[in-house]
Amino acid sequence: APLIALAAKITGTASQTAKHAKQIARELYPAEFESNGIISALTQLVGAKRDEGGPEIELDIQEGFFIHSSEKSLQLYRIIQEAFNNSIKHSQGSRIKIGLYMSHEMIDVEVSDNGRGMPSRAQKPESGAGMGLKILKYRANVINAKLKIKSDEHGTIVTCRVAR
User: How confident is residue 144, by pLDDT bands cut at 50, 70 and 90?
Assistant: First the structure.
């Protein structure tokens, strides 16, 4: 009986580890992104995080949203992914919203939460507070986008705007 219980525990742990490894691989380069684009990849990312529990997550996509450039699309996906993961990990909020919008000339993506906000020193990439903001700014620069971060005790909003 003790060996059966131990084998069941090992099997359960191995199954969870395999599931976690698959999730990491999807986040590194989601196959869904390459075959079906940013909307499908974000839908899958949000769905996986919803399955884990945690804050309420809203995905707001303007009807007809699309991005012509695959490079812009990938960088915007990574910006959203980083901001989204930071929000889940650090904000302690109950709600996160991801928005994708477009106008004739511009694409806007936004990740917002109703959490505790970021300390003011963390909002400055040069402060050495972490790699996340440096990565966000780098990715925005790669596609000549404008990145804005607004954070206070009511939450954080990360916005990225780029020409279509």
Answer: very high
**Of the candidates 114, 121, 122, the residue with the CA atom closest to the CA atom of residue 154:** 114
Q: Where are the beta strands (DSSP E) in the chain?
A: 56-61, 95-102, 106-113, 146-152, 155-163
For residue 120, the SS3 value is helix
Most confidently modeled range among 19-23, 29-33, 41-45, 146-150: 146-150
Task: For residue 162, report the phi and psi dihedrals to the nearest 5 degrees.
Answer: -140, 150
Burial class of residue 89, CB neighbours in 10 A (0-12, 13-18, 19+)? exposed
Q: How far apart are CA 161 and CA 164, in angstroms?
A: 9
pLDDT tens, 101-128?
999 889 999 999 999 998 765 555 555 5
Evaluate if pTM is beyond 0.85: no
Say which residues have a Cβ less than 8 Å from residue 148's Cβ, sequence separation at least 6: 157, 158, 159, 160, 161
**Residue 64 CB coordination number (10 Å):** 6
